Amino acid sequence: SKAKMIQLLHPEGKKNFKISQDKYDAVKGYIIRCLKSKGELTHTQLIGCVSNGLAAGFDGSISWYIEAVKLDLEARGVLRRTLKSKQQLLSLSTV
Fold first, then answer.
1. Quick one: three-class SS letters along 41-66?
2. I want to staple 72 with a disulfide (CB 3.0 to 4.6 A). Which of 8, 53, 55, 67 is the partner?
3. Can you tell me the distance from the alpha carbon of 50 to that of 13, in angstroms, rounded to the nearest whole number?
């Protein structure tokens, strides 16, 4: 059976990729878990945290998937990007 795919959104409305729903759910789950436990993270910290969770047996470039899903979550209003002392910080939107 073909993997169910999800069309990723982009915060600037650019065309984004389609990835498998399973990978999307896995990466999204860790992004949300990392931000829930830490509050705010830099891009590098987020990649580190999510990579630690996914590492074993993840097929593909983890950092690429994190970036793609992060942009999608920003577009959907789940994540917020703020600039503090020239550093971009990511956090969960308080919806």
1. EEHHHHHHHHHHHHCCCCCCCHHHHH
2. 8
3. 25
Report whether 21 contacts 4 (CB < 8 A).
yes
**Could you give the angle at which helices 62-75 and 21-38 cross, rounded to 10 degrees?**
80
Query: pLDDT tens-digit profile of 27-61?
Result: 999 999 999 999 999 999 999 999 998 877 788 89
Which SS3 state, helix, strand or coil, does residue 74 take?
Answer: helix
Is the pLDDT confidence value at 15 over 80? yes
Q: Are 53 and 65 in contact (CB under 8 A)?
A: no
Single out the residue of 64, 41, 40 nearest to residue 54, CA to CA.
Answer: 64
